[in-house]
C-alpha cells in the first residue's frame, strides 16, 4: 500500500501537509523538509516562506475558505 498525502486547512492558519510529499519552487528546485508533516503559510507574511512561522496569529490573519462541495454539471 502506498502512503498518501493529507492536506489539512486550518482555520485562520496554515496548510498542514502530512505523508509523502516534495515541495518545489517555481523552477523545480526542492525545499528540503526532513519531517513527515509541514505547515505551509497561507497569510503570505511568514519570514520562512513557504513554511509557516506563526505570523498569521500575530497579524490576525482571517481566512474564509472551507471545503466546498463540488457542484455537478
Task: Briefly say what this structure is.
The chain is mainly beta. The chain has one helix spanning 55-59; strands spanning 6-9, 15-18, 23-24, 30-31, 37-40. Strands 1-2-5 form a three-stranded antiparallel β-sheet, with no helix packed on it.
Write the layout of secondary structure elements.
Elements: E1 6-9, E2 15-18, E3 23-24, E4 30-31, E5 37-40, H1 55-59
Antiparallel strand pairs: 1-2, 2-5, 3-4
Could you characterize what this model shows?
This protein is mainly beta and 73 residues long. The chain contains 1 helix and 5 strands; from the N terminus they run βββββα. The chain has one helix at residues 55-59, and strands at 6-9, 15-18, 23-24, 30-31, 37-40. The chain starts with 5 loop residues before the first strand and ends in a 14-residue tail after the last helix.
Keyphrases for this structure?
73 residues, mainly beta, three-stranded antiparallel sheet, 5 strands
